[in-house]
Amino acid sequence: MLYPIMTDSRMVFDLSGIWDFALGEEKLIDDFAEIKAYEPIAVPASYNDQKDINRFRNHYGWAYYRKIFTLPKILKNERIVLRFDAVTHTAVVYLNGKIAGEHKGGFLPFEIDITDKVVLGEEQELFVAVDNKINHSTLPIGNENSVAFFGSDNPGIPSVEAGKRYQSRRNIPNFDFFNFAGINRSVRIFTTPKSYIDDITVIPSVDGKNGIIDYSVDTVGSEEKIIVTVYDSQGELSAISNGKSGRIIIQNARLWNPYPDIPYLYKLKVQYGSDNYSLDVGIRTVEVSGDKLLINGKPFYFKGAGKHEDSYFCGRGLNLCLDVKDINLLKLMGANSFRTSHYPYAEEMYQLCDREGIVIIDETSAVGIGGGANPYKEYSMHAHHRDVIRDLINRDKNHPSVIMWSLGNEPELERFSQDAYDYWHSLYELAHSLDPQNRPVTVVCCQNDYTKDITTRTMDVICINRYYGWYNLSGDLDAACYALDIELDFWQKIGKPVIITEYGADAVAGIHSNVPKMFSEEYQAEYFLRINDCLDKRNFIIGEHPWNFADFDTFDGCMRVGGNKKGIFTRAREPKLLAHYLKKRWNSIPNFNYKNN
Ligand code: GCB
Known about the structure:
eight-stranded parallel barrel, single chain, 10 helices, binds (2S,3S,4S,5R)-3,4,5-trihydroxy-6-oxo-oxane-2-carboxylic acid, about 30% strand
C-alpha cells in the first residue's frame, strides 16, 4: 500500500484537527441521532488522556467521531480516497449517513474509495465509530470479564468473589501497555487520476560495485506506458527503465547502511499515464548465515531497545516530534536499531528510520496469545493474524530500515508446544511467501522452559525476552548471571543467531541506593552491566535490546507504580543512570564484526 503523498498528479487533504466526539457504550448504536451532544477531541490522538475524567481514561466500548468537510469541485475528474492510518481497534466509517467501510485492527492503515460517495462542493458528514474492546479474536488479545493481568484473583474468598461479580464490564488486556484507543493516526483524503499507480514493489540487491533494483508496478486503468527513473540523493539521474516490472542497475551504487554509517537513499519515480509517484529506495541486502545476521554481507550487531508509541496526553497517538527526539536519543546513545514492540508503528517512523539509518524489527500486534487456555484451540484470532501479517508486509515491504519481521510477542510456546509450532510455522511460511525481499522472520519468545518450546529454535533469528534478576532470581545478580549462562549454553548448541529482545529492571527515577537495591537506578545499571558481561562472552548473541527505551503507561495493577518503569529514559525522556552507561558502551561497539568467530 502506498503512503499518500502530493505529486504533480496527486493531492492530499489532511483532516487532522479538532473533531466532534462522544463516548458510547458496549454496543454500537443504530441511529446517530441518538447522540445528543458532542464535545471537542483532537485527531489524531488517543482520546483516553485528553480529558481528565475517569470515563475517558477507562472507557469500554464504542466511541463516535464526527467531522464535516467540503471538497472542491475541481476534483471532479479525480479518483478520491479516504485513508485512515490507524483506528484502534475496530472502525465503522459512515459518509453522509451510509456505511462506507469497516476495518478491524488498530495499527495498520485502510483506505476507502469515496469517488462515488462524495458530493463535491457541498458539506459532507464523516462519522467514525471506534471500538476499543479487545478479546480472544482481536490482536492484541484481551480477556473480557476475566481476572486482571496484574491482579490476584484470590479464588474462593467469598467477598472477593462477590466483588468480582460487581465489577462492570471492562477491557482486561493480556499485555502490559495501556489500551489507548481512538483515531490514533492521520486521516487524509488523497486523489489520483482515474488511471493510477496502485502499488510499487522494490527488491534491492548488490552485484560487485553495482546496485540492483528489481521493481514491479501495480496499476489500475487503461494506460500502457510505465516509466521508472532513479535519481541519486543530489537529484542526478542514475538509471531509467520502462514497463510494469524490470531490473534497474545502478553503476557504483552507494549502499544503505545503518547509523553511524550513511543510509544512502535513491529516489525512484514512477510515471503511469498522467499519474506520478515517488519512493525512497535504499540498496542493501539482509541474510542470515550461520549464527550471524548479515547486512550488506557483514555481521551486524543490534544495539537499541524495545519501544512503545506512548506519550503524555496523546497516548498512542501520532507524535512526530517525539519520534524525531527518540531517534536522536538512540543516535546519541550510539544505538542503531529498535523493535516496534508490540504493534506496527506509524508509517512516518519508518520513513524517518530509512533516512536516519535506524534498523527496525517490525512486529505485528499479536501480543498476549496465551494466558491459561490453549490459545491455538480456544481463541479465534487465527484469520485476523494472517490478515495483519499480510497488511503489515504490504505496507512496509519497501523500507530499507525494516530488516526482520516479528510475527508476535511472547505467545504461549511451551505448554501446548505442538499446537504452537503448527500455528507459528504456518505464519512463518506465510510471511516468507509474502515478503518480496524475503527478510528473516522471527517470533519473540518469553521466559519459558526453552527445552520444551519447539518453535523459537526454528525461527531465522532467535529472539528471547529474559528477566533473570528481575521477575526471577529477583535482586540476586550472581544467581541471575549463573542461570542465564546455563540457558545460553543451550542456545549455543542450536547454532543460530540470538538477539536478547528484552531484558531489564524497573527503576523509579530518583530512587538511589548505595548497595544495588531493586527499583533503584543503581540496581538497573548494575543489572545491565552484569548481564551484558554474559552476553559479550557469546559470539552467537548478535544484539541487545534493553526493555524499554522509555518508561511507559500501562493499566492499573499491583505490579506497576505509575506505569512500567523499565525505561532507559523516563516517560519525559530524562536519562536514568543506565542511559549514561549504555551511551558509553554502545558508542564503543561497532555496527559490524563486533563478534567474530
Ligand atoms: C515482557 C513483555 C513486555 C512487558 C515486559 C515487562 O516480557 O514483552 O510487554 O512490558 O515484559 O516489563 O514486564
